[in-house]
Amino acid sequence: MAIALSAPWDDLTFMSPLSEARAERLVAFLGDGLHGVVVDVGCGWSELLLRVVTAAPESTGIGIDLDGDAIKEGRRRGDDRGLSSRLTLVDVDAAEALPDRADAIICVGATHAWAPPDQPDEPLHYERALQRMRALLTRGGRLVYGDGIWSRPPTPAAIAALGGREDEMITLAELVDVATRTGFAVVGAHEASTDEWDDFESGYNACYARWLAAHPADHEDAAEVRDRARAQQAAYLSGYRNVLGLGYLQLIAV
Questions:
Q1: Distance between CA atoms of residues 248 and 246, nearest Å
Q2: Are 65 and 44 in contact (CB under 8 A)?
Q3: Rounded Cα gap, residues 220 and 169, in angstroms
Q4: d(CA 133, CA 183)
Q5: Residues 55-77, buried b or exposed e (16+ Cβ, 10 A)?
Q6: pLDDT per residue as tens digits for the range 1-41
Q7: CA-to-CA distance for 42 and 40, rounded, in angstroms?
Q8: Which of 6, 70, 88, 238 is the most buried (most CB within 10 A)?
């Protein structure tokens, strides 16, 4: 039987290393003059999408994610905020739910949605993803794009902890070049800070602390939960901390 851990939204605001200050700037960028459709690919529980739809009262939102439980949480939040009539959240593959055109797009941590199905272990397909999103956007449409980058050359410890490969990601400078040649003007290029990463990893790992606090120390699953917590903490703190980054680009289709 699977161990019942708390949902990530119990301890995280966003499913990425994203501070309130950065989120506010991204929402303002996307919501400025937005009157049409904003699409969030890999929306999770849709917190960023909900904020954009709130900030742009004449907009409608479409959120797409394969996690059905996260989609249910997003719908609950949308209902609570009175946004259900302007919000469509679906737990299907992006290819099945994307509209023909969009006025704004959010894509954070979902580059893999555009990976060729026969190349699951390839490096991240940044260029393919950005090309596909540029094709969806009207000229002048806005995109907030975020995904993994190398903050510095990957170490063996980081690669081992991530279970990846040295060429899996690129640098922020290289990502900006990709965005430029795929038809975007770059308004902002930033990287998640160490504090944002520490907050994210702490929140991600908090489900284990919640479980251990709610169950006796001699529970049959306690040792496994403690091992999972230690492994996650070690992977981050002794592995990919300050090596794995997350780049955030604010882009306008040109």
A1: 7
A2: yes
A3: 40
A4: 10
A5: ebeebbbbbbbebeebbebbbeb
A6: 589 999 999 999 999 999 999 999 999 999 999 999 999 99
A7: 6
A8: 70
